[in-house]
Specification:
The protein is an all-alpha fold. The chain has one domain. The longest helix is centred in the first third of the chain and has 25 residues. The mean pLDDT is 83.
Length: 261
Amino acid sequence: MDVGNFGFVIAGLIVGFIVGMTGVGGGSLMTPILLWFGINPATAVGTDLLYAAITKSGGVLVHRKNKNIDWGVTGWLTLGSVPAVALTLWFLKSFDTNPKALNAIITQALGYVLLLTSAAVLFKHKLLAFAHRRGGDKSLFSGRRLNVLTVITGLVLGTMVALTSIGAGALGTVALFILYPLLPTRRLVGTEIAHAVPLTLVAGLGHASMGNMNWELLGFLLMGSLPGIYLGSQLTGRVPDAVLRPCLAFMLLSIGYKLAF
């Protein structure tokens, strides 16, 4: 294994460790790291999407076993996200003859989504408290209106994920907390992960069909991230959330600002 490939293993280890410890930061950190390594933006997004699908699949098995997934909510989200992924990939494919423009669009979108993600990470607790205050002992939305809003949420997440590989984690979780404040946190997290797997898998395979994939790179990332997630999960709760969250938010804010502007 040469030095460059060893660097990808270490990157996977670090990102996996952060994800295992905090539950967020996978795509938000991995795609910018791949750009820092000089990977083409479109290839970085495509590779990270399949990386996310594989790493989160294990989480689905655990959450399913513990009955932490609301399959109805997952279905409504997927109803919006998968068509959005297909439309976004169709849009990106129109830039086949102009890869420079494609990379510019992905990089710019990546910057703005990272800025949104940093805000979601930093103000997550305040947003949740607001949702609970407004909802009281009932949800803000219900019935058909709730289903429509869930589909729209999936549509937005699908577009962001297909463009940047980011959005299904921190942004998706916050959106679900606001829409379903009465669902237990463990079920909301499990539902978000269950939705993220088909979302990232479809988007990743779509990018792979366009040639935006590096299979060797994916293998090296997984080689580091799988033990990293295990190690990080052992430290969950040992490092204060008041320290972790601002540090992660500041990191994402800095990267997002640099890419967007």
